[in-house]
């Protein structure tokens, strides 16, 4: 199939999902595909942690490209949210950013959806998106953890501690 001509398209797309789970013999069996690439087929290898030291993935990277989509750490999340909002010409109040961090967390695709909803919701309204806007529109999709709650208590962040406590109680 890899070397056959594509039907009704200039190229065939082959998705290699969970490529990080391939065993060494499976990788070895796929190396000829990468050694002699087909002009009519594009191979995309996806996985949560690809070992770029393996021959097959280093070859793919050399002959094509490797792109890594990292999930931001919790301390970098507010910055990532502000960047995503700026791409949508959406101004966020600091408390709105905090509320988004609390409600959505590091799920960036979900964050993009919530920012789109907020942009539509505020429309041409003057001023930034507020925490009340976020509370009214964004559902809590992130499960709060006891560890986050105790960290907030330890930091003396009463507002976040109370919100996390409510979230934990809602989760049962």
Explain how this protein is built.
The structure is a single chain. The chain is built from 8 helices and 2 strands, in the order βαβααααααα. The protein is mainly α and 172 residues long. It has a two-stranded parallel ribbon with strand order 1-2. α1 packs parallel to α2, α3 packs across α4 and α7 packs antiparallel against α8. The chain is elongated and about 60 Å long.
Largest sheet: 2 strands, parallel
Beta-sheet strand percentage?
5-15%
Shape call: elongated
As a percent range, the share of helical residues equals 40-55%
| Strand order within the widest beta sheet | 1-2
Which stretches of 5+ consecutive residues score pLDDT under 50?
none
Mind telling me the C-alpha Rg? 22 Å
Broad structural category: mainly alpha
Number of strands: 2
What distance separates the N and C termini?
51 Å
pLDDT averaged over residues: 86
User: Tally the helices: what do you get?
Assistant: 8
């Amino acid at each position: 199939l890899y070397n056959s001509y594509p039907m009704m398209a200039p190229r065939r797309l082959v998705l290699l999902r969970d490529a990080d789970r391939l065993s060494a013999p499976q990788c070895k069996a796929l190396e000829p595909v990468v050694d002699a690439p087909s002009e009519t087929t594009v191979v995309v290898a996806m996985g949560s942690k690809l070992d770029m030291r393996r021959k097959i993935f280093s070859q793919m990277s050399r002959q094509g490209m490797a792109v890594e989509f990292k999930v931001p750490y919790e301390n970098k999340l507010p910055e990532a949210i502000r960047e995503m909002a700026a791409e949508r010409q959406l101004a966020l109040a600091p408390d709105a950013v905090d509320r988004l961090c609390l409600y959505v967390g590091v799920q960036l695709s979900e964050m993009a959806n919530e920012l789109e909803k907020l942009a539509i919701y505020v429309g041409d309204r003057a001023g930034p998106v507020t925490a009340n806007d976020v509370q009214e529109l964004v559902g809590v999709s992130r499960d709060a953890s006891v560890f986050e709650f105790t960290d907030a208590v330890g930091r003396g962040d009463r507002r976040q501690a109370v919100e996390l406590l409510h979230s934990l109680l809602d989760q049962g």
